[in-house]
Amino acid sequence: MEPGSQINESYPVEFSVEYPDRDLNRLTTGFRILWAIPILIVLATISAGLGDHPGTVAAGGGGVLFLPALLMIVFRQKYPRWWYDWNLELLRFSNRVGIYFALMDDRYPSTDERQGVTLDFAYPDAQRDLNRWLPLVKWFLAIPHYIVLIFLWIAAVFVVIFAWFAILFTGRYPRSLFDFVLGVIRWENRVVAYAFVLVTDKYPPFRLSP
Fold this sequence. Notes:
Low-confidence stretches: 1-7, 58-62
Radius of gyration: 18 Å
Largest sheet: 2 strands, antiparallel
Shape: elongated
Order of helices and strands: EHHHEEHHEHHHH
Distance between the termini: 21 Å
Helix content: 40-55%
Strand content: 5-15%
């Protein structure tokens, strides 16, 4: 490595969306709010079902197991594999719905197929990879990210509205706008994985890029 060179260390949460380098469906884009209602109902029923039980939180439109994982890490230093699988697949599904709602893909969200959305984080060895006490305060340590994300999501809403008009007139999602919304969603997924899914102790970076 040459002196002065820098390593862009990647965060242990991978998130990406394939850019639709093609003409998008203007009809489904124009009526996206109506088209999305059925899949939003499906996602809401999952969230509502989880909401009847303690230890679930709203994250990206769905509920993830938070308190049970926290207690197992603190008292047993374990993270049950099926809880990890549930949280990961639920976040993948909710992200596909979010990407569709943000006009970044005109394919209807699948409940199981990954389509053009990639979300991955490694299954943690709770004894080796996770500090048993840190889950108690991660949600608090992430407060600066919540504040930044509020402003980022406000900006993202206006960007999506602008993209809506762009798609209706040109059929294309401007790449710069796409990359910005992608970055905001990536940022949120990192914070959720750190503070609520509890799969990493590495503090999320303050950046939109990978």
